[in-house]
Amino acid sequence: MAMVANTVGMIITLAFGMVQLKFVADLTWTASLAAGVYPPFILVGLIKAFLASWLGIIVRRRLQKANLIKEPIVEQQAS
């Protein structure tokens, strides 16, 4: 779930950056997509999303183990 949330955040950030690039640099939509999203940022963004998810899970587990945060409430399914 953490990876999905980080990837969605990355996509939203790249979309806003592409819109800004289109209007500020007066580019076409295709040019702003190619210049601001594809080459430089997709791979790096996915790597950062993976690392943030991985580190976030590790930190959360350690905080739970140290009793600094509570365990998540797990709802039981009705049988």
How would you sum up this structure, described in words?
The chain crosses the membrane at residues 7-25, 37-59. It holds the Pfam family BioY. Keywords: Membrane, Transmembrane, Transmembrane helix. This is Substrate-specific component BioY of biotin ECF transporter. Belongs to the BioY family. This protein is mainly alpha-helical and 79 residues long. It has one domain (2-65). Helix content is 75%, strand content 0%. Helix 1 packs antiparallel against helix 3. The longest helix is centred in the middle third of the chain and has 28 residues, at 38-65. The two termini are 25 Å apart. The mean pLDDT is 87.
Order of secondary-structure elements: HHH
What is the percentage of strand-forming residues?
A: under 5%
Number of strand segments: 0
- Structural class based on helices, strands and sheet pairing: mainly alpha
Mean of residue pLDDT values: 87
Taken from the alpha-carbon principal axes, the silhouette is elongated
Unreliable spans: none
Integer tally of domains: 1
Work out the helix count: 3
Largest sheet: none
Fraction of residues in helix: over 70%
What integer value in Å does the Rg equal?
A: 19 Å
Termini Cα gap: 25 Å
What labels would you give this structure?
3 helices; transmembrane helix; 79 residues; BioY; Substrate-specific component BioY of biotin ECF transporter; transmembrane; mainly alpha
Helix-strand blueprint:
Layout: H1 2-24, H2 29-36, H3 38-65
